[in-house]
Design a protein that fits this description.
- 4 copies of one chain form a homotetramer.
- Chain A is mainly alpha-helical.
- The first copy, chain A, is built from 10 helices and no strands.
- Chain A folds into 2 domains: 46 residues, Arc Repressor Mutant, subunit A, CATH 1.10.10; 141 residues, Tetracycline Repressor, domain 2, CATH 1.10.357.
- In chain A, helix 5 packs parallel to helix 8.
- Chain A is elongated and about 60 Å long.
- The first copy, chain A, binds a DNA duplex (21 and 21 nucleotides) through helix 1 and helix 3.
DNA sequence: CATGAATGAGAATTCATTCAT
DNA sequence: TATGAATGAATTCTCATTCAT
């Protein structure tokens, strides 16, 4: 199913890699990144050494899990780009990202870190296009910039982190409200959006040291 | 060496408690909850033992710091209640809570936990009144409920956690957008708000185990 | 007995520090630096945490043990300086250093590392004086330099590392031979001695990575 | 896939063995025995499994590398034996052993261990003859015994271990000094040499456990 | 046979909490 | 009562060795 870069892994190794990734994802979702590698290994049914063979650092394991989520988001962005109605495409995109963030709540603290990543840049580029097209139809107010979209994702994170286990749809209503503001507002916004440079730095530097 | 009367002793003890709280607040704001008790003790100019005498658990120390922030939020709510214009009062309140969350970014993961707390109930009650009054003037749409306000606070947390160090005003623009949605939106929201029971559980159960 | 720098330790703490140092010295002598901190702690009758409280790094623990040996060598150098006969003083000094190296064979791989150390500089200065005085009396050949003395110490290390457990006096005979060469030789030496700069770098850089 | 006759198989195996030995030698020389088997396997262009097939233990791999160095030393001893001048032969031998020890500095901790080895016995026998012949010409003092020669090698190890990377010729000057002592000294040595039995035990027991 | 994946004991280090001084 | 010393479980990561493919 999955292909792992240029050098192919043996089938058993690839299966183990998947088991580890899956166990890590589940563990992070349930316990957060503080969970020990040993627990992840146990959950995957392998020894710690095996985890470290595939992911030489806890950091890299986290990154691998996060990368999968990002890839899903990128795919969602692409799918939304194909939508005939730009506005509906944008809306769909926002909800899909919300859903993906919800489904991988354990990854949120790291989801937008590591700005050098190619996938993140893809996502940004597609998002800009989606926004521009929607603005061109007049259905989204003109003073909204891409950085506002990024901020919406971060805000959804805040909601999801709080509500995920108890009110799984809470983020949807919040996104409703935000979308309404994006589409109807006509009072100029009092505060400036993030500059692209700031957004860049946020992605690079934000979040507390995530693992000890 | 010197002997103190019980009153003096109590005063000393209270001073220590304050020094510790202050040091903890500053430490959490700068480093987050991961900081060690030893560092807090040093910053307070006392030994670890003294910290543990006042706060038998790191958990309790965190709670005490969080409670102070909550008290500030309660005060902000009260102040906003006194505003002649209900709408302006609500707006001011939202921005003040935003600012307080920003200033105590290190406490965010725990800020709304611990629902049994009297202060949280006060905040909720006052918030409900503020919202109701603003809705009564017609400036805030009627389908907004208190739980939406709570959700706004959580969403600001998400933004602040990401942007605090890099774009200290980012949350303000996000709040602009949200307020516009609250005040002007006239399309019915597609998703239901949190029920009060859900909001209650969110406060009680949300957030990851904060300390290892 | 021992004084531990400016801030005094509590008596129990100081005792523990001594116990740890003693256990470390014994452990290193028996097992080398590869021994685990846990074993040292056990031998000292304390927990690992206690070892790390006094010596935040294994490296620092090793350094502390080594420093004690260096101090003894410095004292030996000073004592030898007071000898009325410069030649006998030098001889005595060489044998004392040999004995100290023998008695702390476990420290040899690290004994002369860390060239910035004040004690090492003292030792070097005193050694130079001892040599110069002995040469002034004509009993030591003039083309010998301080770096040759350092090299003698290193060569004794090689002998001691091999023979310590089996032939505890082997290094003495080797030193006999070397001293004879220093005192009687009149054929010019074919190879140049280390330059002081080289000797400096040796002290700074020599030895393989000692701990894993 | 291809089928080989047994001869070809053996040749392949031998080639592998040589590649591994060569890689191990180079690795030990550069990094010491602490280097991992995986790195050696990679350098040899084979898998770890293959290394373990040829050398069931890291210990045995080390021994094999050391044996090669010993063989070189034996050859040097033989070559020196053929020298017309016994004294020059001995001198040449000492310098050659010094050079070999320098070139295989990574092997020093194990070079003289493993006394049961036939090659070591050869070396010893030839060395004794060399020494006896040189003493017969009167150019080497009579109270020098074979064990003093062994001790010289160990002492060179000490010098080389310290200076190899920084002052590659340091050991030569040290050997100069020692040779002068051997050839000119006429004051009786104060300490007895190693007995042959001690020297034997040194070879068998000396040196720390080399691998963890 | 060769490969390299898997294993798991062990090593250094941290930190919340307890307790002797 | 204040202090900070002691504790030890837990965490990340390494590496010699075994074994399925």
């Amino acid at each position: 199913m999955t292909s792992y870069g240029s050098r192919a892994l043996r089938r058993d190794a690839a299966e183990n890699r998947d088991k580890i990734l899956e166990a890590a994802r589940a563990s992070f979702d349930e316990e957060g990144f503080e969970i020990g590698i040993e627990a992840i290994a146990q959950r995957a049914g392998v020894g710690v050494g095996t985890v470290y063979r595939r992911f030489p650092t806890k950091e890299l394991l986290i990154a691998a899990v996060v990368d999968e989520v990002l890839a899903a988001i990128r795919d969602a962005a692409l799918a939304a780009s194909g939508h005939e109605s730009a506005t509906e495409g944008l809306t769909e995109y926002l909800f899909t990202v919300g859903r993906l963030q919800f489904e991988h709540a354990g990854c949120l603290p790291r989801l937008w870190n590591g700005a050098d990543d190619a996938v993140r840049r893809e996502i940004e580029a597609i998002s800009r296009q989606l926004l521009a097209k929607a603005q061109a139809t007049g259905s989204v107010r003109g003073d909204v910039v891409y950085e506002d979209i990024a901020t919406i994702f971060w805000s959804l994170q805040g909601v999801i982190e709080r509500t995920a286990t108890v009110a799984p749809d809470a983020w949807k209503r919040h996104l409703d409200i935000l979308i309404q503001a994006l589409t109807q507002g006509d009072i100029p916004l009092a505060h400036a959006p993030l500059t692209p440079q700031q957004a860049e730095r946020v992605k690079r530097e934000s979040g507390r040291g995530v693992i000890s």
